[in-house]
Amino acid sequence: MNDTAAPTTVNEAEYSRWQRFKRSHLYHSFVNDRVAMVSLLIFLLYAVAALLAPLIAPYDPYDPAMIDIMDSEIPPSWQEEADERFLLGTDAQGRDMLSTMLYGTRISLLIGVCAVILQCLLGVLVGLTAGYFGGRVDSFLMRLADIQLSFSTLMVAIVVLAVFQAAFGAELYAELAIFMLILVIGIAEWPQYARTVRASVLAEKHKEYVDAARVMGFTSRRIMWGHILPNTLSPLLVISTVQVANAIISEASLSFLGLGMPVSQPSLGSLISSGFEYIFSGSWWITVIPGFVLVILVLVMNLLGDWLRDVLNPKLYKG
């Protein structure tokens, strides 16, 4: 009797949660916003294509056995002198552009997502601590954030990465490039999270549920992370969506300056950079096609961020 009742109860609970979600403002807003739906669909296509790049890419751009320098600068299939083996043509090294962009998108998304996770962790830690404890701790941490904000992300990244290359050599940098980019971009952007979380904590920490948690003897750590933080997640989701796009742009900018991913492991930014010198010689596709792919990726992420900002803003909710 109990064995048959348990699955039914679980199914009813899952069905109830789904029904509540379908009646929510978030779901209603999404299904009635075509821009948000198309943006999410395009982003999911990017993510799936990047994740499955080793399976769907015609060639492996990291395998020297599949690269022939004699195939360099072959135009896309719709132009004259094209080769049916290469739908989007090849780059200056003879690599298939479609395959290289699939792998490059995976690297760009990986750097963007991991850098934002690092930003979020640092910012949430600083913001929670500053907002909850206040006083001198708040003043000290916020002055650090002010100092960090006085330096642009690109300026900090250029200095750190250039010094690292000069000190340890280009070979070591090529091996650690992806980790260095995640670290530098992540550390450079944490103040935005810290300020947002601090403002939310200042609004939440004097509410009744926080006072009740203190009376019950909960530790400050439990109150901060278990009670206050969940109520600050809405603005963090909005910031994260936009920050992933910003991190991808920062990586592309650094790659264009020669401080991003190496040519042997190209991201979308390094593909644009490597093909720029050939754009006036007629091989425009090496730069233009990855640039178009990058612009669409950043655009849909910004559109999703704008939609989330509007949906999660209670002042705009009309019931």
Protein described:
With 319 residues, the chain is mainly α. The protein has one domain (33-316): MetI-like (MetI-like fold, Orthogonal Bundle). It has 14 helices and no strands. The protein has helices at residues 2-22, 25-31, 34-51, 53-56, 97-133, 135-149, 153-168, 170-188, 190-204, 208-215, 220-228, 233-256, 268-276, 285-311. It is globular, with a radius of gyration of 24 Å. It starts with a helix and ends in an 8-residue tail after the last helix. The mean pLDDT is 80.
Task: For the structure shown, list the relevant keywords.
single chain, 319 residues, MetI-like fold, 72% helix, 0% strand
In percent terms, what proportion of residues is strand? under 5%
The residue fraction in helices comes out at over 70%
In the CATH hierarchy, the architecture is: Orthogonal Bundle
What is the makeup of the main sheet? none
Separation of termini? Answer: 43 Å
Order of helices and strands: HHHHHHHHHHHHHH
CATH class: Mainly Alpha
Quick one: CATH superfamily?
Answer: MetI-like
Shape type: globular
Structural class category: mainly alpha
| Average pLDDT | 80
**What is the radius of gyration computed over CA atoms, rounded to a whole number of angstroms?**
24 Å
Contiguous uncertain segments of 5+ residues: none
Keywords: Cell membrane, Membrane, Transmembrane, Transmembrane helix, Transport
Family: Belongs to the binding-protein-dependent transport system permease family.
Organism: Sedimenticola thiotaurini
Subcellular location: Cell membrane
